[in-house]
Write a structure and sequence with these properties.
The chain is of the alpha/beta class. The protein contains eight helices and seven strands, in the order βαβαβαβαβαβαααβ. It has a seven-stranded parallel β-sheet, with helices on both faces.
């Protein structure tokens, strides 16, 4: 029986992969046989991660660029496709949040969140799909959020960006499906990462998250990475336009 979760021979780019969910995704895709290109803006951090994967006999390389820089995205994706001879998987994970009440939320920060969480994903998908079209196959995976489907106060720009990303996922699934390219989004719940550490250490907020989650805990990054592996693999060959919620039941706990 063939392993439908094997990514042997595949090439994938994971943005924001020097830490957190992105690093967990990069580790799992590489362990499943893919050549993983790690992305971030901190080259030394990326090189350390590449060394860690290489020391385990896994295939990895680094591409340091800012995902909000359109020219950098165009050049990086083209370079990966040319160097590796193919481009099979895009996991657009890099994202930011800005926490502020609406009346104290500067428009500059709103734009920065939208540029990073939504516009950059559009650019990445546009460029990745060019390489995938010639293969008549490919996997585009966005890391969205349950906060694109539900909401809480103080993160209006984040909620808007992730809601837009969910809609973009569906639009691209319809447009790219005839070319053999799927597009799906993972919608994580509250996940224990460096980015969310201040929230984890806030006793009141932590109690709210744990109490509102039927599984009574935060997610661990590898649990989100497992969803990415599924969507990147042949096991998800007939799955597209789907928002895969991985939140321990948080979003259904009325």
């Amino acid at each position: 029986m063939t392993n439908s979760f094997s990514l042997a021979g595949k090439v994938g780019l994971v943005t924001g992969s020097s830490r957190g969910i992105g690093w967990a995704v990069a580790q799992l895709l590489a362990a499943s046989g893919a050549h993983v290109v790690l992305n971030g803006r901190d080259r030394p951090a990326l090189d350390a991660r590449v060394d860690a994967l290489s020391s385990e006999g896994l295939k990895a390389s680094a591409a340091a660029f800012d995902t909000t820089d359109e020219r950098a995205v165009v050049d990086a994706v083209a370079a990966i496709a040319e160097t590796e001879g193919r481009f099979d998987i895009l996991v657009a994970n890099a994202g930011i949040a800005h926490r502020a009440a609406l009346h104290e939320h500067p428009i500059e920060d709103f734009r920065r969140v939208i540029e990073t969480n939504l516009t950059a994903c559009f650019t990445l998908a546009r460029e990745a799909s060019k390489a995938m079209r010639s293969q008549e196959s490919g996997r585009i995976i966005f890391v969205a959020s349950i906060m694109g489907q539900i909401a809480r106060p103080g993160v209006a720009s984040y909620v808007a960006s992730k809601g837009g990303l969910a809609s973009l996922c569906k639009a691209l699934a319809v447009e790219l499906g005839p070319e053999g390219i799927t597009c799906n989004a993972i919608c994580p719940g509250f996940t224990a990462t460096d980015m969310t550490r201040p929230l984890q250490e806030n006793a009141e907020f932590n109690e709210w998250v744990v109490g509102s989650t039927p599984l009574r805990r935060w997610a661990a990054p590898p649990e989100i990475a497992a969803a990415a592996l599924f969507l990147a693999s042949d096991s998800a060959s007939f799955v597209t336009g789907h928002l895969l919620t991985v939140d321990g039941g948080f979003s259904i706990n009325a």
